[in-house]
């Protein structure tokens, strides 16, 4: 298919050959298949479309192709491809350095988890105290006594002091829970240090998702090509002169339903791949934990996780990923509708609609996080007890409520460690990349 002229051809046209064998449509710009030279060279893409060769485009057309989506176009894609081609060694070095940095971070976490945990708690308390002092000092230095803004700033400082008191009280009352949380983090670091092959599982999940994305994109292009081609014209708004032509597709309602259905199926498979990765790691870690002791190294079996997934718990994992896919799909449909309804921001009704849209967006994001947490607890219970999804989700939530302090501190301290680890690995890896680019030949 030659999109520029809305006509199906037997071979992609070039400047030096002609197009004689073609099939016209109702919206084709050309009205006959008489031999004619192509305006530029083109090559076949995905066995479906004839796309122009960028180097053969007329200078008057290159600007359009260089700004397909805003300022993004073919020139940017060529630049990215050139950078990857020239810097592939740097990418490989950075990938290797990531694993090395992760290893040393987990080694440090395994050795100094308790010290780091109490240091993180102290930093949180010190941060709240500094914030309260800062607000009070700013109020006293910039606003006279009795000023309304100064009063509100003083109230804000008192509120922060109140949060600091609550935080300190929670730490004192939950001392044992914090100790348990620290031991959990040390065990997590020990699992990683003792079983580095667990990195294979997320890598397999990423590869599977990337392969699925490519397959979905290829299939979606074929599905989109089922629509009727419609020729449009670029018209100068001042002179009403026709500046050029472009092609759009017009789909029937049935074809649109197929596209939406394929989008949901795509989201479901992506969610399932992520859930399968989580479940396999949960099974492997649980197997290691319950089989290791002072005399024996635990049985960290990745293949057991995959076997249990497909043999015993496939339906439960599919159901959990289905719930996530439903939430993702609703969010995408909402964003699509919100973009369609977006209008002038100065209109009071438009501002009210934008406020409502932001509230709905926040609620959907909260629902997404809630479902993700329910799924995580359910997958843990499924791996431990082998029960169905609903029963496991209920028991997991009840267990969380029973030990809410321990779970809260474990997630809070773990979140701080994850953030610090991500920052440390990112900064160090950026330094490695800079040194490679600056000093490697």
Question: How would you portray this structure in words?
Answer:
The chain has 441 residues and is mainly α. The protein has 12 helices and 6 strands. A two-stranded antiparallel ribbon has the order 1-2. A hairpin with a 3-residue loop joins strand 3 and strand 4. Helix 3 crosses helix 4, helix 3 runs antiparallel to helix 5 and helix 7 crosses helix 8. The two termini are 45 Å apart.
Keywords:
two-stranded antiparallel sheet, single chain, two-stranded antiparallel ribbon, mainly alpha, 7% strand, 441 residues
Strand pairing plus helix content: what structural class?
mainly alpha
Strand order of the largest sheet: 1-2
Taking pLDDT < 50 over at least 5 consecutive residues as the criterion, the unreliable ranges are none
Distance between the termini: 45 Å
Share in β-strands = 5-15%
Average pLDDT, to the nearest integer? Answer: 80
Binned, the helix content reads over 70%
> What form results from the Cα inertia axes?
globular
Question: How is this structure best summarized?
Answer:
The chain has 441 residues and is mainly alpha-helical.
Question: What's the structural blueprint in terms of helices and strands?
Answer:
Blueprint (H helix, E strand, L loop, with lengths): L6 E3 L12 E3 L17 E4 L3 E4 L6 H8 L7 H13 L1 H55 L5 H26 L1 H20 L5 H25 L3 E8 L6 E9 L2 H39 L10 H10 L2 H28 L6 H38 L3 H14 L1 H36 L2
Antiparallel strand pairs: 1-2, 3-4, 5-6
Helix pairs in contact: 3-4, 3-5, 3-12, 5-12, 6-7, 7-8, 7-9, 7-10, 9-10, 10-11
């Amino acid at each position: 298919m030659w999109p520029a002229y809305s006509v199906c051809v037997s071979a992609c046209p070039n400047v030096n050959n002609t197009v004689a064998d073609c099939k016209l449509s109702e919206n084709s710009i050309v009205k006959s298949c008489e031999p004619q030279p192509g305006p530029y060279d083109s090559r076949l893409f995905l066995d479906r479309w004839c796309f122009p060769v960028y180097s053969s485009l007329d200078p008057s057309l290159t600007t359009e192709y260089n700004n397909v989506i805003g300022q993004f176009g073919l020139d940017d894609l060529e630049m990215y491809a050139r950078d990857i081609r020239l810097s592939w060694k740097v990418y490989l070095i950075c990938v290797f350095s990531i694993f090395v940095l992760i290893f040393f971070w987990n080694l440090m976490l395994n050795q100094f988890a308790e010290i780091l945990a109490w240091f993180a708690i102290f930093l949180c308390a010190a941060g709240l105290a500094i914030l309260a002092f800062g607000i009070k000092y700013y109020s006293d230095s910039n606003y006279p006594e009795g000023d309304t803004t100064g009063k509100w700033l003083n109230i804000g400082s008192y509120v922060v002091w109140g949060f600091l008191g609550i935080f300190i009280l929670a730490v004192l009352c939950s001392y044992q829970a914090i100790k348990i949380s620290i031991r959990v983090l040390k065990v997590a670091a020990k699992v990683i240090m003792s079983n580095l092959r667990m990195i294979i599982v997320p890598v397999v999940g990423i590869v599977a998702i990337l392969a699925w994305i490519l397959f979905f994109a290829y299939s979606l292009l074929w599905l989109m090509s089922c629509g009727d081609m419609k020729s449009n014209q670029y018209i100068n708004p001042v002179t009403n002169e026709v500046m050029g032509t472009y092609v759009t597709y017009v789909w029937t309602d049935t074809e649109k339903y197929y596209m939406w259905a394929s989008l949901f199926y795509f989201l479901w498979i992506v969610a399932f791949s992520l859930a399968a990765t989580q479940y396999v790691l949960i099974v492997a870690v649980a197997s290691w934990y319950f089989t290791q002791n002072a005399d024996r190294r635990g049985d960290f079996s990745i293949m057991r996780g995959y076997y249990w997934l497909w043999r015993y718990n496939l339906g439960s994992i599919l159901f959990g990923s289905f719930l996530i896919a439903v939430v993702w799909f609703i969010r995408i449909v909402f964003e699509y509708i919100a973009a369609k309804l977006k209008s002038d921001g100065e209109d009071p009704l438009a501002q009210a609609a934008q406020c409502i849209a932001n509230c709905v967006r926040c609620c959907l994001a909260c629902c997404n996080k809630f479902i993700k947490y329910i799924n995580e607890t359910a997958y843990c219970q499924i791996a431990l007890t082998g029960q169905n999804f609903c029963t496991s989700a209920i028991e997991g939530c009840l267990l969380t409520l029973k030990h809410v302090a321990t779970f809260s501190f474990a997630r809070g301290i773990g979140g701080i460690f994850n953030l610090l680890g991500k920052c440390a690995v990112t900064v160090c890896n950026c330094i490695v990349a800079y040194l490679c680019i600056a000093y490697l030949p």
